[in-house]
Amino acid sequence: MLEYVIDKLIALLGPIATLSKEKRELKDSALRGISIALQETKLYYRDLGRGKPRDMDREAQLAKYWAVAAIPLRHIDEELAMICEYKGEFWTDPDHWPDDEIERVGIKLDDVSSAYRKLAMPKAFSARRPADA
Known about the structure:
Mean pLDDT: 84
Number of strands: 0
Oligomer: single chain
Structural class: mainly alpha
């Protein structure tokens, strides 16, 4: 009987390892999408800060980056996925998003960056003392 149980447990190790690997790959894919959207948005804001004019094509691309980031993220963090979806909607027409609405739905870039870091490196954030935050 014990031998049977051990054989069954050993047989489960393969699928468990595969599941863990698949979950890790899914999380990495979700994190990659939001990382790209964050970096492209920060670069765009950098360019605007240096005096470059608004670029509707680039804003359309940002809308796509954020929308694409939301898709795999929904399996990892539904709230952050919805924030990415709102961020994509924002970039389709930024002029029609008042500051209070941006704050209400949580799409300020600093807030999204912070949420991304917490998801990407949870140990680093849980190890921080409240005074460090």
